[in-house]
Amino acid sequence: MKKIFIVIVTMAACLNACATAKPDIKDILGKLGGAGSETEQTDDNSSSSSSSSGILGAIGSFVNNTIANNNFTVDDLTGTWNYQSPAVSFQSDNALKKIGGAGAATALESKIEPYYTRLGFNKTTLTVDADHNFVLKMGVLTLKGTVEKDSDDMLVFSFSAFGKISLGKMKANATKAGSTLNLTFEATKMIEILSKVASVLNNSTLSTLTSLLESYDGVYIGFKLKKQ
User: pTM value?
Assistant: First the structure.
């Protein structure tokens, strides 16, 4: 109980800082991590430590999502971004409410993570150069093209596979907080593109992932990435 109280107090202090300034996400999560380390030193119970880690993880995710926004330019994406975990978003707040809110979205991320691992997507990297050319490596699959931003603040990727096969354009929801980028594509269109180059992927795993996502209306899937 004492641990939870300390973490909640730390969270409140961090959120208050968010309201009065524009802090770096690393500073906020660093404070939360520090709170977790302090409590672990006063209690050797492993199950309690695990519980605190879960609480800290949830709070860290909450803070990150709270201050993440789409107020950035394509120039801000220049560099290499490495995979951290799956990401899920929805086309509208109504679609999110239908599946049970943010908690259900987080649960869906956990559900698709094993499929990402089997497909090699847990090794995903995104590299964007100064001319807005990108290379998206998803395991054995490499997609190239150009990226721009439209009037709705969505990223528009013009895809090609292996630098030769045109795969068309696709919009992506993208929010950024410090060095963390949440990048999600409409699931049906993403699967369609992946299916065109399915010969280099595990077809049965891709089919199972497709079946899983069909039960969610307006879902976007992608990646949480961290700048290298």
Answer: 0.67
